[in-house]
From TrEMBL:
InterPro entries: Ribosomal_eL30-like_sf (IPR029064), Ribosomal_eL8/eL30/eS12/Gad45 (IPR004038). Gene3D superfamilies: 3.30.1330.30. The gene is LOC111287187. This is Uncharacterized protein LOC111287187 isoform X1. It comes from the Eukaryota. Pfam families: Ribosomal_L7Ae. Residues 93-153 form the Ribosomal protein eL8/eL30/eS12/Gadd45 domain.
Length: 177
């Protein structure tokens, strides 16, 4: 077990949200959320269907703790070599999780479940407004957890750049279009 996994496990056991380098706050959070919002707008513009926006958003994201949990549970756990026994219908690329969830036990299971499925967590911390900021992404008042579904679009490209530690820039969106 790596040091990062041990730290995540200890945080899970005491009920706290992991505090790792994948915690976004301040200017970094603003930059990340604006980048993801541009990705959503770009992917929506490229979509050739006439679905209502709320339906289209549900195709791109698992919204809310229950929906994220449901999708994670349907994904097969990955074995040590990184492959899964079966390929799921829907796979999450990453989970955006608001650190201001109260009570904490509502999201206590998500880090363990995400770790077993090899889905990275991106913690959003914004002085008791993280859930409001996540809600803005999916046109809701608040959202404690948002799972980004792997669909191969501009949203996924931006999330992958964030996970790789690269700076998201405007050129990435231009390449997709």
């Amino acid at each position: 077990m790596t040091a990062r996994n041990k730290a995540a496990k200890n945080n899970i056991l005491d009920g706290s949200v992991p505090q790792q380098q994948d915690c976004y706050e301040g200017e970094r959070l603003v930059h990340v959320l604006k980048s993801i919002q541009r990705g959503v707008e770009s992917a929506r513009a490229l979509a050739e269907n006439s679905l209502p926006e709320k339906v289209w958003l549900k195709q791109q994201f698992a919204i809310g703790v229950n929906d994220v949990t449901r999708v994670l549970e349907r994904m097969a756990p990955t074995v040590e070599n990184g492959s899964s026994a079966q390929s799921p219908c829907v796979r999450l690329q990453a989970i955006l999780l608001a650190a201001d969830c109260n009570p904490k036990w509502l999201i206590k299971h998500l880090p363990t479940l995400a770790l077993s499925r090899k889905v990275p967590l991106m913690i959003v911390r914004d002085d008791k407004k993280g859930s409001l900021r996540l809600g803005e992404l999916v046109k809701l008042k608040t959202a404690i957890a948002i799972g980004v579904k792997a669909r191969g679009n501009a949203i996924n490209q931006i999330i992958q750049e964030l996970l790789d530690g690269d700076e998201v820039n405007q050129g990435a969106l231009l390449e997709v279009q």
